[in-house]
Amino acid sequence: DYVIVNGNLIERSEARLDIEDRGYQFGDGVYEVIRVYNGKMFTAQEHLERIVLSAKKIGMELVYSVEDMKKQLTELIEKNEVKLGTIYMQISRGVSPRNHPYPNPVVPHTLVAYTKEVARPIPNLENGVKAILKEDIRWLLCDIKSLNLLGNVMAKQEAVAAGCYEAIQHRGDTVTEGSSSNISIIKDGKLITHHADNLILNGITRRKVLEVCGKGNIPVVEEPFTLSDLDAADEVFLSSTTSEITPIVEIAGKQVGNGQPGPVTKKIQALFDKEIE
Ligand code: PDD
After folding, report:
1. Which domains does the chain show, CATH number per domain?
2. How many A from CA of 97 to the centre of ligand 1?
3. What pLDDT is stored for residue 277 in this prediction?
């Protein structure tokens, strides 16, 4: 398999990274996961614009443009002959003797990208998954797709240890997002999902969901909802690049609705499927 390291397409075994890379030592960088369907990147523009924005929010001005990155990633997919999979890419603040302040002068950022074959999660899409509830203990810049994922990782682990797929996080009474996904609820035919602010990552899949709801005449409200709204919801689902639109059929041991994926979620799944064809 080939990978990209700083603009070079090389064999994975040839890739070398410094132990004083700030991504490795401080989690000082940003990342994206992009889906590949039919050998083509899905919503590449949105993902690449988001990584530029994430970088900017942590004071990194990227040398690569969105177009540059798209071109490099397209080459990578073609080289690896990925038909159905993902691209992982991350950009760190670069290599410098370990010291908390940003390197001054600025050093070259470290960009790496690689691909993976990943199937669509068909059983989960059809049957739904279980979730736990978890206090959101993360920092207050969750809009940045930062390499610092310890809060997310610990939340996910708690879910997995409980035999569940995802942790639905909440700050006090307000539901924010999953450990690696956004959360939406359906109540009386209407979709409710947390608005895009500093408490959630504005997921590209989340945006697609809102877009297809527009096309499918499903009313949407972007506003915070509470744990009791979640409890009273007719349907609940999570969305992410790899999980797509996955129904949540059980939360903290309690069935959502009748414990089956609901009709509105299924309609959104069908509308989403049309987008990726
Ligand atoms: N996770 N919220 C968080 C905290 C996430 O990590 C993700 C994505 C999302 C959904 O974003 P999108 O629809 O753009 O994938 C929301 C990726 C897939 C990951 O870390 O693997």
Report:
1. 2-117 (3.30.470.10), 122-276 (3.20.10.10)
2. 31
3. 82
